[in-house]
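Structure tokens please, single chain.
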Amino acid sequence: MKYLHTMIRVSDPAATIAFFELLGLKELRRFDSEAGRFTLIFLAAPGDEDAQVELTHNWDEAGYGEGRNFGHLAYAVDNIYDSCQRLMDGGVTINRPPRDGRMAFVRTPDNISIELLQAGEALTPAEPWASMPNVGSW
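Here you go.
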């Protein structure tokens, strides 16, 4: 398993980037989704590019209530199906199953979202994951 990033939602990307630049972080990459109406901006401290902060700007958002800014922690795993099965066997609900062989979401006992991403290429979609519905929010 490898730590990837922590995601926070932002209302004003320019102001948030300026803040993180004052802390010493630099923008690594940016992705705009016209269809999804969001922008993802990844920042990291120079020399520590593996520990990233993902800023998510939802274009139509009018502001977040307190506590809604934090998004999730993300980890790359060697086999997303094995990881999800191990979690399920331990009593963890898979909120967003890895139907695509690439991404899943679970929550901690304190309701913090954890994103699991398949390291490398996505695995071939497989049952029971491919037909498993989302459970609650992720």
